[in-house]
Amino acid sequence: MIADNLVVDARTGRRTTWGELVQRAVPRPTPTAHVVERSVDALPAVAALKDGGELLVVAAGRLDEALAEELRTAGFDLVAGDEVRAATSPRAAEDGRVWLLTSGSTGRPKRVGHTLGSLSTVTGELAPRTWLCPYSPGTYAWWQVITLGLGVPGQDLVLVDPADLDDWLTPALEHGVTAVSGTPTFWRRTLMRHGAELQKLPLEQVTLGGEPVDQAVLTQLTEAFPDARVSWIYASSEVGASIVVHDGRAGFPVEWLDRDVPGRPRLSVVDGELVITSPHHGTDASGAEMTGAVRTGDAARVEDGRVLVTGRLDRDELNVGGSKVSVGAVRDLLQSHPEVAWAAVRGRKAPLVGTMVVADVVAGPGSDVNADDLTRWAAERLPEYAVPRRIKMLAEIPAKETLKSDV
């Protein structure tokens, strides 16, 4: 069912509805990769899925020539505005198939297959809301918000492109936004840039995910939006939205581990890695279902009755002179400092110990905290081998088009 909700282009103020988009939609008979500069450019293709077709949406900035040729070889026509580059291995469309590209953080982006149904993980009725969607078109998070507006009555959308996010608050106020979904990096940049201005925005729902979520950012959002429910979500292209937490605390209750509940993901921690068996799984590029337990590649640890997801497993653990250091734990500690807006931690090669801990830090608005202050502060709270040996102070929080930190 297509919900006749409103869709607003924040840049132009243009308003339309999904019903109008469906009426104007022209489905394509062949698998199509729509290459778009802006979110609104993808909406007609999404609406056309009502009548079938096979679709992949990709932001123009993500499409290099190697990926373009890979998609054409896989049977996709590339459509960018009026320009069409035909598939080099044509095939019939698989009606209703929606393809996503993974982030490529561990190599080349991979295709993961879904349907509108597997992307629509909301169950039950929702209170009417107007959502801000700041995500890059075609990403899993983008599809989550788009399918919410497409299929759930009362969920209007205001689309803001990543290039326009420096002043997203203005269109949010203008169009009555009451719910916002973003990454932790998006929210940290927002808190740093807009501060007290955020009190003007009467949010009812604040959602964050896509990166590790620590207690500091949850607390800051709860204080900035005291009337909103603050939720963090763990989701990926492969396993869908698998963890949703509303209690304002980092991590999820340890009691959720190894529980079998019909229709819900099964969560486990195996050798420090989050493992998920999900009913919302996608397919691989060949169309084979991703059934069974999926090793997510994300590090997880149990602490004080909570399971904390701290980052990519291959980046989270450092060996400093034979001692193990969790990058996520050091990062979370630095971000818990009252004058720190954001931190990133990594290892750097060093003589004698092999690896030393280093960090990039952005101070909060009006703060004059410096690297020496933070080193002393960390030394009081961490084992000696885990204290960052070099801290570089940055002027602003770096971010990629995906709204994740560019580190």
UniProtKB/TrEMBL annotation:
Protein name from the UniProt record: Acyl-CoA synthetase
Gene Ontology MF terms: medium-chain fatty acid-CoA ligase activity
Family: Belongs to the ATP-dependent AMP-binding enzyme family.
AMP-dependent synthetase/ligase domain: residues covered: 70-265
AMP-binding enzyme C-terminal domain residues: 333-402
Gene Ontology biological process terms, A to Z: fatty acid metabolic process
Pfam short name (any one): AMP-binding_C
InterPro entries with a match to the protein in the record: AMP-bd_C (IPR025110), AMP-bd_C_sf (IPR045851), AMP-dep_synth/lig_dom (IPR000873), ANL_N_sf (IPR042099)
